[in-house]
Amino acid sequence: MTHMPARPVDGAEPLSALPAGPMRQAGTQRSGIYEISKVLTAPARLEITLANVVNVLSSFLQIRCGAIVVLDAEGQPEIAATGDIPPSSQSAARGVIPKAVIDHIATTGMPLIVKDVSKSELFQAEPQPPWSSGTVPISFIGVPVKADNKILGTISIDRVRNDAAPFPADEDVRFLTMVANLVSRTIRLHRFLNLEGRRPIGEQERSEKPIIAQRGAPGRHPPVKIDGIIGDSPALQQVVETVSVVARTNSTVLLRGESGTGKEFFAQAIHELSPRKNKPFVKLNCAALPEGVLESELFGHEKGAFTGAIAQRAGRFELANGGTLLLDEIGEISPAFQAKLLRVLQEGELERVGGTKTLAVDVRLICATNKNLEMAVANAEFRADLYYRISVVPIVLPPLRERPGDIPRLANALLDRFNKENQRELTFSSSAIEVMSQCYFPGNVRELENCVRRTATLARSSSIVSSDFACKNSQCLSSLLWKTDGSPGGITVDGHARSNVMPTSSPRSGGSIGASDEVSSVKACDPHGSGCPAMESRLTQRDRLIEAMEKAGWVQAKAARILGLTPRQVGYALRQHRIEVKKL
Question: Model pTM?
Answer without folding.
Answer: 0.50
